[in-house]
Request: fold
Amino acid sequence: MEPFILTLIYFLIAVAIILIGVVVFELLTTKYKDWDEILNANHAVALSVGGKIVGISIVLAFSIYNSGTILDTVIWGLVGILLQMVAYFLFELFTRKFSVEEQLKKGNISVAIISMCVSIGLGFIIGASIT
Reply:
């Protein structure tokens, strides 16, 4: 019975951490509101938000695989959100010719794909570093 209980606990923790991450990223975007854009069928914003969700999920998965405790998973999940935020700011900083936020608001799918890949790729890097 214990594996089922642990699975339920990890599931609930993962959902909570992902929701925290989504809220944090909603607060970080200043030029639009993520869920308003998604409801208006802005595929670029949806791809970007989806990438962040998958990136955080990857960090959580590695944490569950490698951590000895539920607390470790919570800590690594929060670290994953923090590092995804750093990646978000670095991506915006290194794209000097355009604003990532403005391009996502305009529905630029190319920028969205790169944003999604940055989030997912760094999710794997962050996750793999958990030992």
